[in-house]
Amino acid sequence: VRAEIVNFPGLSSHAGLDELVRWAEGFSPRPKEVFVVHGDADVAPAFAERLRGLGLSAHAPRFSEVYDLAACRVEREGRTPRKTAKVRGDTPVYRRLVSLGQNLVDLIAKKRGLANKELAKFADQLQSLIDRWSD
User: What 3-state class would DSSP assign to 75?
Assistant: First the structure.
């Protein structure tokens, strides 16, 4: 296996939601229940919802929830922890922009090998957007 590891400051190195869904589509045999226990309070439930869309039984437990594994049901409702910004400016909208940035990096990687004319057009469009939002 050959891989190139690239780190972009401010961007997650975790797989994006679409990549995680593609990974889950390959489950064989299909699990009886999927617990999504890693991710932000917004991200974990969204991933569980997408898994349910694939026909999997998926659940994102909430803080202090009691779940009966044998019966596959919530015994006591939990709560969503209060969000606190770890860093000034670290808001859901900012995290969304960072996620979109990762999606853009993934898209650029998928375009590798296209004709130079198409790549140049894409690069020009991105540069135009960057120029418009730069101070």
Answer: strand
Q: Write out the two tokens for 94.
A: 């900012």
Rounded Cα distance, 99 and 12, in Å: 7
Q: Rounded to the nearest 10 degrees, what angle do helices 17-25 and 43-53 cross at?
A: 40
| Cα gap 61→34, rounded to integer Å | 11
- CA atoms of 28 and 114, how far apart (whole Å): 34
Cβ atoms of 90 and 83 within 8 Å: the answer is: no
3-class secondary-structure state, position 59: strand
Backbone angles phi, psi at 12, to 5 degrees: -70, 150
How far is 74 from 66, CA to CA, in rounded Å? 6
* Spatial separation of the C-alpha atoms in residues 87 and 15, rounded to whole Å: 22
Task: Enumerate the β-bridge partners of residue 79.
Answer: 63
**What's the pTM?**
0.47
For residues 84-91, average pLDDT = 62
Token pair in block for residue 99: 């996620």
Where does the pLDDT of residue 115 fall: very low under 50, low under 70, confident under 90, or very high at 90 and above? very high
